[in-house]
Design a protein that fits this description.
It is a single chain. The strands form two sheets. This protein has a three-stranded antiparallel sheet. A two-stranded antiparallel ribbon has the order 1-2. About 15% of the residues lie in helices and about 15% in strands. It is α+β, with helices and mostly antiparallel strands and about 100 residues long. It is built from two helices and five strands, in the order αβββββα. The longest helix is centred in the C-terminal third of the chain and has 10 residues.
């Protein structure tokens, strides 16, 4: 199990490392298969009308730097971002509660 606290989510290299075929188990039907599973916890209280939007109208992304949490423009699928940024008090309080 891996729990990504603070800046780990920003700095972690998200990948399944390459391995030689000889070191990977062969499934009888699928052959050589590599799986990478990601589980995320949904927070219903943070969805719907509670979603903060940046100046360009997209939902903000939650980020962390130096152990401090903030909301920022999340330009997924866009060519530019609006440079929106603000501290995120609820995420900071939740991180401190869980430490």
């Amino acid at each position: 199990r891996l729990i990504m606290w603070d800046d780990c989510q920003e700095a972690w290299h998200h990948a399944v490392p390459r391995q030689a075929d000889s070191s990977v188990g062969r499934h009888p039907k699928a052959g050589l298969v590599r799986l990478s599973l990601t589980f995320r916890m949904a927070r219903p209280e943070l969805g719907g009308e509670n979603v903060k939007h940046c100046r360009c109208g997209r939902p903000c992304g939650l980020k962390s730097k130096g152990g401090r949490y903030y909301l920022a423009c999340n330009p997924a699928g866009a060519t530019a971002q609006c440079s929106f940024w603000e501290p995120c008090a609820w995420a900071q309080a939740e991180a401190e509660r869980l430490r």
